[in-house]
Amino acid sequence: MVYDRFQSEAIEHIKNGYSVVVSAPTGAGKTAIAEHVIESCLEKNESIIYTAPIKALSNQKFRDFQGQYTDRIGILTGDVSINSNAPVLIMTTEIFRNKVLDQPESLDKYSWIIFDEVHYIDNEERGTVWEESLIFLPQHMNILCLSATIPNIEQLAKWLETVHKKEIRVVIEEKRPVPLHFFFQCQNQIVDNIHKLNRFRDQHKPNKTHALINYIKDKNGLPCIYFVFGRKRAEHLAFELYNQNFLNEDERSQVLSLYESLCERFDLKSEKRAVEMLPLIERGIAFHHAGMLPTLKEVIERLFTSRLLKVIFTTETFALGINMPSRSVIFDELKKFYGSYIRTLKTRDFYQMAGRAGRRSIDDEGFVYTRINLHRIRFDEVKRIIYGDAENVRSQFNASYATILNLYDKYKDELFKIYPMSFHYFQTKQHHQKTAVRLMQSKLKLLKEMEHIKDGTITPKGEFAKAVYGYELLLAELYDEGVFEWLDEVGLGIMAVAIVFEPRRNQRLPPGFSKTTQEIKSVCERLYERIRHKESRNGVYPLAKTPHFNMAKAIEGWVHGMKFDKILQFTDTDEGEIIRYFRMAIQILREVKDAPISPILTERINKAISIINRDIIDAEKQLREG
């Protein structure tokens, strides 16, 4: 294989035994470096871990690598465990972090770990997981970090050197192998120079989707990925193109045949959404978002990689690491919802998505089209997003209660000496450092107050909380009050889904709860109020997550044996989200099962898991059959 300059440079460092951090644009070919490390480990009979930020990407990598490494590849996520003793093991970063803290000896056989998309360290919700994984990484493991373009990659590497007392080599590539050409649709006119937008400032002609798609088609710019920041909008825009056809008769015949065979394989032939999608598919159009059934999403992904789909309307998850390049990319707008508010896109997020344009070894350039309404976004904001520098990666460090309990178990009150090892300490000023330490101290004080720790020893309640990352306090209170002992399989399902569920804005509780749900809801709300009060009094933030019972009727129906299409009547949550929350509930139940609990409760949880994890919920079944 002929490598690019940056690939060769990284591989040479790896051959010389160095850990390496690589920063390169999306689509530049970072995976080739990862593959070299994997193949090198296999040649030496060494084992290696590959971590990815989301389960969808872990599954995608497993499918990709399975073709290359067959039975030498395995996967371990909260949903799936396939060939988990394989020499090449893919896992989510959460699973790796838990192993680092709970079972470090289980990592003795691995000589390398690959952190894909390491810029996720500044993700507000999950960045701490990455930071903890890197802080507590066993000394015998070498690191390959792969990142999108970030300006402070040298700072990240210097921090790793400081923590692990070994040299880290940095490799930077700023150019894409396939350059990007930018266009703008404004007032339904298409221009290739951002400064021409000003001429449209006083006009009020709306941008037409079909006009832009036809322009791209005429310029031989298909296939095209159209990024939308809303699921309903993705579907609406796809059906808006219903009267257009992007396939010739031969392509139409091929795509229908492939779609039919894939729907049959994944048991989707009579599924309502798959049937609705058919008229779009035969025209070369589709949509893809997190609210869809995971199996249907996989079918759409396979159709797209076959190059029989010409226009796909999708949300941003399609951009994250999943190998779905196209010739053109369209941005519906340049604003999105970031956790708690809508704001203009970060430059790094823009290029994560724009980087899907231009297929290496196929296209000479990629085309990026941005739809602009100057009455909704300022010209200087557009310019900053597209032509500004990518944002620095910033630490989001906020140690979980489970992490603090695990550290206390090893270091007692000396655990605060761990904080100076964090990326947060490395890159922030003194007053921010003091704030971070105060927060850790407040959490430790609260854990002692709530008797997770007593007389310098972790109590049974604390031992339980150590095992359940993210929902420690409420689950530990339920355990301590003996609530788990009176919950049957239905009750365990209701409780687990309520703990993980996050309602959408303005999503309301459905009426008419069962007696079981009312009892669990009452207990959870009483315990949560106690927790919230103690956290507020101790200055802990953000507060522990509130349990929500929006899906109680749906999980009750499912545990009682109802079919998936029948439980949809009990919730206004999208199908894909229902599956995701049911799978998250299974993961919670598995964590509870691994905590120190009674054999009777273990048996009951096993039964609940087996009932919930059936048919379309069973992620492992989907991956094996796929």
Q: Can you describe what's shown?
A:
46% of the residues lie in helices and 13% in strands. By secondary structure, the protein is α/β, with parallel strands linked by helices. The chain has 3 domains: 5-172, Rossmann fold, CATH 3.40.50; 180-387, P-loop containing nucleotide triphosphate hydrolases (Rossmann fold), CATH 3.40.50; 467-625, Sec63 N-terminal domain-like fold (Orthogonal Bundle), CATH 1.10.3380. It has an 8-stranded mixed sheet with strand order 4-3-5-2-6-7-1-8, sandwiched between helices. The chain is globular and about 75 Å long.
Helix-strand layout with pairing:
Layout: H1 5-15, E1 19-23, H2 31-43, E2 47-52, H3 55-69, E3 73-76, E4 81-82, E5 88-92, H4 93-102, E6 110-115, H5 127-135, E7 142-147, H6 153-164, E8 168-172, E9 180-186, E10 189-191, H7 209-218, E11 224-227, H8 231-240, H9 249-265, H10 272-281, E12 285-288, H11 294-305, E13 311-314, E14 328-331, E15 335-338, E16 341-344, H12 347-354, E17 366-372, H13 379-387, H14 401-411, H15 423-427, H16 430-449, E18 453-454, E19 457-458, H17 460-466, H18 472-480, H19 483-486, H20 489-500, H21 515-538, H22 552-559, H23 564-567, H24 575-594, H25 599-612, H26 619-625
Helix pairs in contact: 1-2, 4-5, 9-11, 12-13, 14-17, 17-18, 18-21, 20-21, 20-22, 20-24, 20-25, 24-25
